[in-house]
Amino acid sequence: MSLSIFKRGFENSYQEIFQKVLVGMKIANTRLMSGLKFGQSVDRSLPSISSVRVRTITVGSDRTVDAISDSRETLSVDQKKGTTFPLSDYEKIQAGPLDPGSFYGAKVAHLVAQYVDADILGQTVNAAYDFDNGDLTTTASTGTGITLSSTTVPQLVARAPAKLQRNNITGGDMVFVIDAYGSADLTQYLLGKNIDLAGRTFANGYTGSVATAEVYVSENLTGEAVLSLATTPTEGDTVVIQGVTFTFKTTLGSTAGNVLIGGSADVARANLTGLINAPSTTDSNGVALSAANIIVIQDTLRAAATNDNSANTMTLVCTGSGRLTLSETLTDATDAWSKNVLHCYFGKRGAIDCVIQDMVDMEMLQEPKQRTKNILADVMYGVKTFTDGSKMFLDVLIVA
Questions:
Q1: Structural domains present in the chain
Q2: Considering the entire predicted model, what is its pTM?
Q3: How many CB atoms lie within 10 A of CB 197?
C-alpha cells in the first residue's frame, strides 16, 4: 500500500466518522467556522438595554435619556488536540485486503470526536439557569438532581420548556441531550404518550422528540459529584472513583494511590484533591497512580477536583465522563458521596459557539532506523458560551 493511498483512506474515513459521531456539533452554532484558524480569535459585542426604562412622557418637558451599554467577549481557537501512533510496513502487509488507512482513520476519529464532544457538551455547566428537582414543583432550583421516574419525567419534559419561556426564550428548534440510560427512562415513563425514543436512528445520536425538543444521546456529558469529608479518615479508609482506589494513610509509604491523612480532615481532603488533579505526581502528600489509573483519571474522566474547607467537601467535575461510579469505605458513616449528577443540555440549538477545523491535519513521519511511520492526526478548535447564549439553555441535573 502506498503512503498516498493510506493517507487518502485515513482522511476520508476520519472525516466521515468524525462528523457522524459529534453530537455537540448538532447543537452548537458554527457560524464563525469558515473565517477563523488556529491562534485567531473573534470579539463579539453584546449590547445591553438594562438601564432603559419605559417612562411617562410629559408634553413640553424634557425627556430622560437612558444609557445603553455593551460588553465584549472573545472566542479563541486555542485548542489543538491530536493522536500519535506508529504504523509499520509489516502491519500494512499483514492487513491484506483490509484498508489500514480507513480502519485507523475510523478508530482515531471516534477517539478525537469523543474528546471534542466532551468539550462542547461540557459548556452545559455555563448555562445561566439550572433545572433540577426543585424546578419540578416550584419555580426555584435547589441544586438537587432529578431522579427519573414515572412522576418526574412528565414533570421534566413539561416544565423545562416553561422555565425557558419564563426567561423569555420561546419558539422552536429545541434540543435535549441526555445519555442512553436517561433516554431509556424517558421512553419507559412516557410510553403511551405518542413518544417513541426506541425507534432511534442514531445519526449523531438523534433518537426522536420529546415535547418541544429533539432528543440526542451522548455518553460524553459532564459528570459531577460531591464528597462530604468532615471527620479525619482512619488508616486504610478508601475513596474509589471509577474503579481507581485512593487509600488514606498515616504514613504515606510507596503504594500507588496512597494519600497522607496529615492529622485532620481538611488536610486529608486537600491531599486527596491534589492527587486527583495531578495523578502522575508523587510528593510528600500522595503517591502517583499506576499508569493505567492515570489514564482513567486524567484522560478518560478528565477529572478536576476542588477542596472546600468551609463546607467540608470535595467537588469532583469530570468533563465527558458520563455517569460516574463512586464508592468509599470511610469510617465515619456521615462521610460519603453526597451528590452524583449528570449535566444534560436542554434548550435552543446554537446557544454554544464552536469553531472547528473542517479537515483533519494528518502527517506521516519516518521513524529513524525502523520501517515504521508515525501517524500524527490533529484537530484544532475553539468553544465558547457567550453571555447571550447562556440564557438560551438549561443545565438539567439528572441523578446518576
A1: 3-43+75-124+353-385 (3.30.2400.30), 128-221+345-351+392-399 (no CATH), 230-334 (no CATH)
A2: 0.87
A3: 20
